[in-house]
Amino acid sequence: MKCGDVGGPWVSVKGWRCERLSFACFSLPLQRKVGAAPHRGNARAARRHRGCPHRGQQTPATPAPRRRYRDASEQGKDTTATPAPRGANADARAKGATHNGNACAAKAQRECQRRKKQTDLETQQMKIGFIGLGNMGAPMAHNLVKAGHALTAYDVSAEAMQTLAAAGAKTAPSPKAAAQDADFVITMLPAAAHVKAVLTGEEGIFAATAKKNVTIIDSSTIDPASVKAFAELANQNGNAFVDAPVSGGTGGAAAGTLTFMVGGSKEAYEHVKPVLSAMGKNIVHCGDTSTGQVAKICNNLVLGITMAGVSEAMALGEALGIDPAVLGGIINTSTGRCWSSDTYNPFPGVIEMAPSTRGYTGGFGTDLMLKDLGLATDAAKHARQPVYLGALAQQLYQTMSTKGAGRLDFSAVIKLYRKEGNT
Ligand SMILES: NC(=O)c1ccc[n+]([C@@H]2O[C@H](COP(=O)([O-])OP(=O)(O)OC[C@H]3O[C@@H](n4cnc5c(N)ncnc54)[C@H](O)[C@@H]3O)[C@@H](O)[C@H]2O)c1
């Protein structure tokens, strides 16, 4: 059967395209009565249909009139349009309508194969070394264990390792030992200096992975120049290296819904995606090595500024006498809404799950935000690009750190605004 040759009481031209896809991909019957919901009676296939490239071209509710394409460019347009004159079908075929149908089915089949491969990889057990079990690393490692991967973890904190061991992971006495038999090694560390030590130290990762073609994934937030240097060293050691910093906070890490911003070749991205999928919902290829960090730094520049802005507004509202919960609710349904107001609102009690409500603990440390704004302002200096608000926000977090609040969640910056005795 050719695209354009199907019609009559069973399927429409457009319906057929979708049916044919279903047949090729999901073994559903080719002919089904027009008017039935696509893939009705087969919930699993229907769910898959949502990802079908022809979604939207659904079988119409009433049988479509038999019609031919006026020319190939009409494919995909409304089938209820005025029928083309007789003989136009031959034109359509001559212009490639049939060929497009075949190409389309082949494309769909390739997409199916790609998805199957992806699913196979996601369910395959990998040997993973994991270094850095802090606020973010610990829940991420947990999710890898939950997904069935064989995890060997290391942290300088024995307590952090004990917690993970209780969840079913192996622990190791050094990064080298954690990486010994690994296919992938993930690092989730505070800053570039820690990553360098863990990679190149005597008991570091490179000592175990030389010429073994292990893939190293660094999810810490560090500067792009360091990433390029680490990737170079890794390649010399016979290992692949991708930067894959994250966004989503500790809540996203626990829920497995992080966004990963991946820098590296397309092949490297495809290779790490199944592993990262156990910890995140959005795995985005940003471009070549270090572009993941560029995306992350720019995102955190916004975050540092918006948190200072929301703090300023919430403290002003308090001083002017409005109930902070009411003000928070208004902002969160108005144009001021942002993650700093609706998820991590700095005013205690406005958002139940926010670090501010639990004494500014367990979130994203002020010193880490200070580091990220430093990365942004440094990168901006090299690019000769102004970052007016970023530089000002950096000074606010610097002041917090100087006052000894570096380990508190960065939303504690509101303390700089609230009146003495209120905090
Ligand atoms: N916390 C967040 O919300 C968040 C969000 C996105 C990105 N990040 C980034 O993720 C990274 C980690 O953040 P975090 O909040 O988990 O930090 P954290 O300080 O809570 O955890 C870091 C962990 O690394 C361990 N560590 C330090 N040096 C080590 C070494 N040499 N060997 C082994 N372990 C070592 C520490 O003991 C600690 O457990 C940072 O780069 C941060 O900027 C954090």
List keywords for this structure.
N-(1-d-carboxylethyl)-l-norvaline Dehydrogenase, domain 2; globular; alpha/beta; binds nicotinamide-adenine-dinucleotide; Rossmann fold; 423 residues; three-stranded mixed sheet; 3 domains; 48% helix; six-stranded parallel sheet
Major pleated sheet: 6 strands, parallel
> Helix share of residues?
40-55%
Low-confidence runs: 1-98
Fraction of residues in β-strands: 5-15%
Looking at the chains present, what oligomeric state does this protein adopt? Answer: single chain
Rg (CA only): 27 Å
Distance between the termini: 74 Å
**What is the CATH H-level superfamily of the largest domain?**
NAD(P)-binding Rossmann-like Domain
**Structure summary, number of beta strands:** 9
Total number of distinct structural domains: 3
According to CATH, the fold-level topology of the largest domain is Rossmann fold
Helix/sheet category: alpha/beta
The distinct ligands, each listed once, are: nicotinamide-adenine-dinucleotide
How confident overall, as mean pLDDT? 81
Q: What is the level-2 CATH architecture name of the largest domain?
A: 3-Layer(aba) Sandwich
Give the number of helices: 17
Task: Give the ordered list of helices and strands.
Answer: HHHHEHEHEHEHHEHEEHEHEHHHHH
- What CATH first level of the largest domain would be assigned? Alpha Beta
